[in-house]
Amino acid sequence: MQTLRTRFSFAFRSTLLLLTIALLSTPAELQAQKKNTETGFVNAVFKDDQGEHPYAVFVPQNYDPEKKYPVILFLHGAGERGDDGLKPIQVGLGPAIREQADTFPFIAVFPQAEIRKESLLAGWLADSPGGKRALQILDQVMKDYSINADQQILTGWSMGGYGAWSLAAADPKRWSAVVPLAGGGKAEWAPKLKDTPIWAFQGANDRVVFPSETKQMVEAVRNAGGNPRFTEVPDVGHDVWKVAYTKPLFDWMLNPSTRVTDTAPLLVKPDQKRPAEVDADTPFVPALVIDNAVSVRLGNRFLKTLADAVPSMVPPDMLEGGINDIYDSTVAQGRSFSVQFSGISYKGELARAAVEAYAADTLNIQLGIQNVNLYIGTTYVSGNRHSAVAGPISVSIGHEEPVWLSFDVRPYIRDNRIKLQLLRSRFNIPQNNWYVSGPAGVSTRGLGMTSEKVSSGLVSGIYGSKWRIEEEVKAIVPGLVEELEKQMNFDEASQIVDAIWPLPVYHPRMQLAPRQVLTDKQGISLSFGLTVAAVDSTSPPGQIQRLNSFGRSVNEIPKVTDLQIGVAPGMLKPLTEMLVQADVARIPVQDIPGNSFDKLADPQTMKQVFPDLKQYGEDLQIWSELVLTRPIQVEDGAKAKKADSNPFRFVVPQAAISMAIKKSASDKKWIPYAEFTLSLGQDVEPEIVDRSYSKRALKLEWEGGAKIGGTARFAPDYNPQESNIDQQKMRDLVQSAWDGWTKQGPASLTEIPDIELGFGRYRINQVNWTAPQLLATFTVPELKLTNATQVEMEYELKSPYSDWGGPYKLKPGESHVFDAATPLLYRRKVDNRMQVFTLAAGSHFEFLPETGNASGMLFEAADN
């Protein structure tokens, strides 16, 4: 079965990367390098006049100081800032190296950005302390190890992606290759980068760094005469490093080319296995458990669609294997004989499948198998002074039509996993749908034993022992049930959780696990609990907090016939309360995607609010953070404007814009200056919108304007020369910033990809708020055919399990729409020849006129 995978992104772990200048090794340094024999990830310390700075180096296995190695400088994201020297290897390049540590050919350097009170996007820039120190650390590594100075590669993710663009522009000739991930820069850097090999990556669904940031830099370099490669990965968000850091990219780093004008292909499909997750080396320490946080309903209509897709999804060898020797006895002409069937194997095809919930706690699964060949290698017959050995015997089952293997299971939960208890199984071979081929050869010993009699007896005996074959087939069912259990993951529901996150601040680490399951006549209901990790795994709470009053219990889940996922927005309150207590629910306003909050850190703008700031002149620096100081609440919204709408309400009881200042960029210390304490509440109307014919998005329509109230005041220890504050101007600025944020993609629009089931698919088509849940319903998508010619089209369609339907007659300018979860075969006679195509589920096709072809041709329509 297709797994439904969840992606919980850490919303603001933007990267800061620092790069260092390489120096050629002297003979004395080479002697020092010979002392460095430790391989793998090695901890080190860089010392300067600011103190000690831990960092990490990856040294290839079988490191040889007589050999020159390429070096990669990796700049991490904002979430890995600190001074432990360990976090930088836990996200991005580090996990990717672990996947191939035995063969990874590069030395890799992992500096760490230490300063937290600066823009996340500026932490690795060329003129920042972090950026300068990163280059110094790289220089130190080049002295300590044998490195090829002509192969220095620079890469970074998020905050580090910005750093990669900046450091590359500051010294473009130093780098043999530059790989920015989810990071942008300034267009004025582009002319310096036109001769530098660049391959940039961006997730199409990134809600932290907008795809436009990377695209603008790539386009600027191209306009300057460069040829950067650019890969935008569909259905991937901010953690694009999980797709980018794979062997094709590392191969390119070793031999980059600037002469690439086409868009680079995807390295890994989004649904394939990727390098180790972001928290691979960080323990997941539970701090909060929210029961009934998410519900999933698998109605029988969805289960039927899922079953139709099963034959295209199961591994080819699922119905292939061996059977232990079978021992039997028989009596012929008054003599007793023992029979041993040896070397038994089987191989078959899965033609159909059916899944249906038909009773309380009972799920029926049927597998239609065909062309099964049961091969018996050797048969031994032995009796008193009589024996025979027969050659291979073949038993063919299901050669006319599929034979159905049916079994009932009871779904239940154990150890936070869905398990299946086998209740009963049924398998009956119709007499007209199987046959036995006699042995290829028989040798006999004993008076009266002839090959004809032995052959006839064995064939008759097998026909008479059909029940034994049926029992052997049923014996494979427990193994099939175990395989089904392994595939029953329901992780995709977290995308709905991610879509309702209202503020641009840190996302907690979470794990979704089933807690309850209920089977009825219409389908299966599942209730999931959400386990939330401690913000700091080294200081977990003394006791795990457990809550269960936010969603629906398994008995209360609506019994729809399609697929429905329900999320309880009310759980945002304990989630954000956790972040408030840990003081991580904050973000610099200049790092909020969309730039709508930028004015709150603009000196000229803020001088209008605080006239006192005018005394500091034109070099004034302002640091502003949006800080959540009380947890978010979710309530029923006001009476809906439309009869079919039902909004819910986000309430932020208290937040703050916290400000600090520096008289100039050269000052080292920020001075606490002022704070604007605010509260807001706003109704949200959820709906599904069409991004294109095949793409759907969850839109949160923020009704009206947020009613923001608040008051600005100076910091307690600051004595202003001018004490006036324009409170209304400040409220207007915050109001405008919030309205700008909620009207942009990250706060209002989240693309929900189709759930792919083998060659078929299920598509979201409805979302509504029914307290206490936001319910998203997925249904069979529509296949659409449009006639854009001037003549009537006549065609036929066929599903994988039906006869040809039609003929359908489509008039010019009109369309036909079909519900089709799986691909359909299409055929039409043109010039006495039959055209046959496979039409993908949920797609749009058009009959278009062709030159010299009055009957036109069918093409897949542009998805826009």
Terminal Cα span: 30 Å
The CATH topology of the largest domain comes to Bactericidal permeability-increasing protein, domain 1
**Continuous helix count:** 16
What is the CATH-assigned architecture of the largest domain? Super Roll
What is the assigned CATH homologous superfamily of the largest domain? Bactericidal permeability-increasing protein, domain 1
Structural class: alpha+beta
Coarse morphology: globular
Report on this structure.
18% of the residues lie in helices and 40% in strands. It is α+β, with helices and mostly antiparallel strands. The protein has 4 domains: 15-254, Rossmann fold (3-Layer(aba) Sandwich); 282-581, Bactericidal permeability-increasing protein, domain 1 (Super Roll); 585-770; 782-860, Immunoglobulin-like (Sandwich). Strands 11, 12, 13, 14, 15, 16, 17, 18, 19 and 20 form a 10-stranded antiparallel beta sheet that branches. β34 (760-770) and β35 (773-779) form a beta hairpin. The radius of gyration is 33 Å and the shape is globular.
